[in-house]
């Protein structure tokens, strides 16, 4: 029975990962196609945030996802959750600008620098120190992105800066999302819905002032922008795929270990790069591919180093209890100590 249960769980994880890769690859390719014909990254972001807001509520209720508590203090709400939503739409906008300006393969190679931003921001904000293995794993990431940048045939400075800003934004979201999930106990999918809805409300005035004005009157053509049925269809599909990608990613995260998820995410990036090169056919050189490979391998090394660091911290947390056991040595204390150790292991 246990073997059958494990087999079913493995098949579920495998199916979700394959679906995640396909949806993510399709989403990036279609996003590039949309922006090539419809160069309005803010509107693309608006469609994606609207999709999260509209689809998530009914779907989560149907799925039985628990509702979040409404007793979150307003001070906490404005101090952490609102800035998270602000960061979400800013990161999404810059991510779309990067895909618009540079090839998808290069944009995702630059996004491989997320561990670098995570380490730096965690050190500055949380005062969190890392092991030397973690710091060393950042070298191939930085070197790989540098090689890919120097050899990118379709290089654009705005695209590079936008990709870096988006990556930093996503890193900040990862850091503070973990804190919000821990402090409030909100379900991660409900948090996605809340952030998407807040980001939409905050982003709406910006979109109305900037993109909608240009859509209603483009000074180049001297009139409103004509949106073809093809662009409408691509925008709709892009919004659906982006929402579905978020759902699958959170579902995978909820059933696997952090290391497995990190490795699966890095593998997904390789898949997206390969699909974009094959489908969109942007030219690359051998050195360019070498840089991409170095960056992705660096991400895998970083994930392994972080896993080793977490395991070492767990062992250190348990050592004092075992020392006390050895020092006292009574049977009654050993029973209590074992119970406490078990609880601590469960809590970790």
UniProtKB/TrEMBL annotation:
It is a multi-pass membrane protein. Its main location: membrane. The keyword Transmembrane helix applies. It is found in: Membrane. Keywords: Membrane, Transmembrane, Transmembrane helix. GO terms for cellular component: membrane. The keyword Coiled coil does not apply. Residues 12-303 form the Sugar phosphate transporter domain. The chain crosses the membrane at residues 12-30, 42-64, 76-94, 106-126, 133-151, 157-177, 189-210, 216-236, 243-264, 270-303. This is Solute carrier family 35 member E1 homolog. It comes from Cephus cinctus (Wheat stem sawfly).
């Amino acid at each position: 029975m246990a073997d059958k249960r494990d087999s079913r769980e493995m098949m579920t994880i495998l199916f979700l990962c394959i679906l995640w890769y396909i949806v993510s690859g399709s989403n990036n390719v279609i996003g590039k196609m949309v922006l090539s014909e419809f160069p309005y990254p803010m509107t693309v972001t608006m469609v994606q945030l609207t999709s999260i807001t509209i689809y998530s509520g009914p779907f989560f209720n149907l799925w039985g996802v628990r509702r979040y508590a409404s007793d979150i203090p307003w001070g906490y709400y404005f101090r952490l959750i609102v800035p998270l939503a602000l960061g979400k739409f800013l990161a999404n906008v810059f991510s779309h600008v990067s895909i618009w300006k540079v090839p998808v393969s290069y944009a995702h190679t630059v996004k491989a620098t997320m561990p670098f931003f995570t380490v730096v921001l965690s050190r500055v904000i949380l005062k969190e120190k890392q092991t030397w293995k973690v710091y060393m794993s950042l070298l191939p990431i930085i070197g790989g992105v540098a090689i890919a940048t120097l050899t990118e045939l379709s290089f654009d400075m705005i695209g590079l800066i936008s990709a870096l800003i988006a990556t930093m934004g996503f890193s900040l979201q990862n850091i503070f999302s973990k804190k919000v999930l821990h402090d409030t106990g909100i379900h991660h999918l409900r948090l996605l819905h809340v952030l998407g809805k807040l980001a939409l409300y905050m982003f709406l005035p910006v979109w109305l002032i900037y993109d909608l004005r240009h859509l209603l009157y483009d000074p180049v053509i001297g009139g409103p922008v004509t949106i073809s049925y093809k662009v409408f269809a691509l925008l709709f599909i892009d919004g659906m795929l982006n929402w579905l990608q978020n759902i699958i990613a959170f579902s995978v995260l909820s059933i696997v270990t952090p290391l497995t998820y990190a490795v699966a995410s890095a593998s997904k990036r390789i898949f997206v790069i390969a699909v974009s090169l094959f489908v969109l056919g942007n030219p690359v050189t051998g050195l360019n591919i070498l840089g991409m490979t170095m960056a992705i391998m660096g991400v895998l090394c970083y994930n392994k180093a972080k896993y080793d660091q977490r395991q070492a911290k767990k062992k250190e947390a348990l050592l004092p209890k075992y020392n006390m056991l050895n020092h006292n040595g009574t049977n009654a204390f050993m029973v209590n100590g074992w119970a406490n150790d078990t609880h601590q292991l469960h809590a970790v």
